[in-house]
Specification:
N-acetyltransferase domain-containing protein, 3-stranded antiparallel sheet, acyltransferase activity, transferring groups other than amino-acyl groups, Aminopeptidase
């Protein structure tokens, strides 16, 4: 039986599913540190927060967050679910929402060694703005 892929908008009322995702993230946590210093209540500040599911299992996460006068995109996949096209589907959902909401710029930070993510962002018209430090780069995408 093939499990169905779906994307669901969430709020902090869906904290249990989000916590399940965070607990199962595996080695991907090394490059997705968003919740290291933020409580679940940060979702109140998001323009959009998503969980991607395979069947009933949360396998991916995405958000558009407004912080510091900019809209920031964050995305993460559970270890073992990268490279299968699920991240691209989450990105498409987030960027369609951003374009339909007339958000002029979308910013993100990414670890340089996360080559798959950097490649995906390049294909989606993100450009390198600067190196934040020796391991992280900042990227930006202008409204399409």
């Amino acid at each position: 039986m093939v499990e169905e892929f779906s994307i669901k908008r969430i709020t902090k009322l869906d904290a249990l599913a989000l916590q399940q995702f965070i607990a199962a993230i595996g080695h991907s946590v090394k490059t997705f540190r968003y919740f290291d210093k933020r409580p679940i209540d940060v979702l109140d500040n998001h323009k959009l927060t998503l969980l991607a599911f395979l069947g009933k299992k949360p396998i991916g996460y995405g958000h558009l967050d407004y912080e510091g006068g900019k809209t920031w995109l964050g995305i993460a996949m559970i270890e073992g679910y990268t490279g299968k096209g699920f991240g691209k589907k989450i990105m498409d959902y987030l960027l369609t929402y951003a374009d339909e909401s007339n958000l002029p710029e979308i910013h993100l930070s990414v670890d340089k060694e996360n080559k798959a993510a950097v490649s995906l962002y390049d294909k989606l018209d993100f450009e390198v703005v600067k190196e934040l430090n020796s391991s992280v780069i900042l990227m930006k995408r202008l409204k399409q």
